[in-house]
Amino acid sequence: MKLKNPLVAAAVVAICGGLPSQSWAGIEDKVTFSGFGTFGGVVTNTDEVDFRRDQQPDGANKSIDTGVDTNIGVQLNFQANSWLSATVQALALRRIEHEKIMEIEWAFLKATPLPGLTLRAGRMAMPTFLVSDSRNVGYANTWLRAPNEVYGLALAPRLEGGDVTYTKEVGSVRVTGTLLAGQSEALAVGQTFDMENVFGGNLQLQKGAFTVRAGTVSGDTVVSPIEKDKYTFHGIGVSYDKGNVLAQAEYVQRRSEHYYNLVAADGWYAMGGYRFGAFTPYAILANTKAKHSDSEPPSPIPATISGKQQSFAAGVRWDAASFAALKFQVERIDADGTNGISFTKSGPEIVPTLPNSMFISVDSVNVISATVDFVF
Amino acid sequence: MKTIKRLALGAAMILTFGVANADVVVVVSANSSASKLTKEQVADIFLGRSTSLTPLDQAAGSPVRDEFYSKIAGQTAAQVKTLWAKLSFSGKGTPPKALGSDDEVKAQLAANPKAIAYLDKSKVDASVKTVFEP
Predict the structure, then answer these.
(1) Domain parsing of chain A, residue ranges
(2) Contacts of B60 in chain A (CB under 8 A)
(3) Whether pLDDT at B3 is above 70
(4) Based on CB atoms within 10 Å of each CB, which residue in A66, A164, A293, B62 is the most buried?
(5) Is the CB of B52 less than 8 angstroms away from the CB of A115?
(6) What is the ipTM of this complex?
(7) What are B11-23's pLDDT values in tens digits?
(8) Mind listing the domains of chain B with CATH numbers?
(9) In what order do the strands lie in the sheet with B24-29?
């Protein structure tokens, strides 16, 4: 585990060691230990490519793969007093490189000095989407997995720094604004790059069953000691959840200043579901495409991080027990002969030092997935 | 399929039974300064949107708990649990403490004037005051 930010280290020390001035009496009332996990299996109708999520280096083909969706997370929350708390979350899942499985996903101190005002410092999720914080918590979501066409586009999933959030009721609308600053890491072309000067903002409006969100994040990717590239990610989303009906849609844009033709892509999805008691069937239509500009200088790498892809998924969530949900999902994915976004190929590199996901050609693939999501 | 049907029938019977018998009211300590609340305010407190009072839950699976969340927010136990998974695993809050009995609820209310809970109407006594009746 890498804790390069002193704030992150401080949060870990605070929660693991107990604040020095704290007496241990009554500590069990202040500490909450909880966890979540998913066990899943995925199979497709082809051996030509592997189906994956995010930037995993391999995935499912005609042989069932249990590594795509399977994860386990544990979280410790230390409530020091009425306005100060510390949270540490460790999460194990298949990541960009095989050797990095378990990481400290979050470690932050949170203060609520005034009603409605929250300050956080440490390592936390980058708020890029409607479901940024709990996207890895299968139990907290209706879908089996977040659509890759949108959620797979973000290259900087974590923030090391701080954020300020203010919530206010304006009439019957709950307005929440967040500003963030710090540093991050960008995961792209099979490598990890430092990202500096990360700034962002989020605005969320909630009225009754409706939530609308808009957000933007930008940062300077350190491509080499002498070169920085501006990365930006914009997103808007809307969700509706009332009675038995739930619906959600998002649209995002990924951009780069100097590597537009390598990086730039748009993505969207629309999802709808209906609760029949413990069963919630749902469907998701999702789409992404790489953007191309002739006015940009030719990319040094004649390929795109992600290509064109459209998918239609139908699934069901079954709240089988009070601590677990079972999910089943079938989907048809069409990448139109490009590299898509949900695919890679394990084995020898097609182009040395670059991931195979950039150089494969995919047409139509059918995918079947099943998971058990639990919390404890 | 037969098992599922039987389970569904059982659930439906429990639900009907629960609705018929649990008349739930929202209460605070008799010494609390809290006054009448609206349904929205109660829902905000118990669903993690407001921290003005500290909510206390009844035991998971108890009819009074299911009745409370159904009346206050139109949500099932599974929906409430999913919501808390979302909030707690984003560091936005921790679910209300679940207590085993009505007496425990009353004892906790007496000990904490900022606490708020719900009881079957028949269990209300002089130690508590009703702030909302659905």
Answers:
(1) 41-66+115-375
(2) 322
(3) no
(4) B62
(5) yes
(6) 0.80
(7) 544 444 444 456 8
(8) 23-132 (3.40.190.10)
(9) B97-99, B54-58, B115-120, B24-29, B128-132
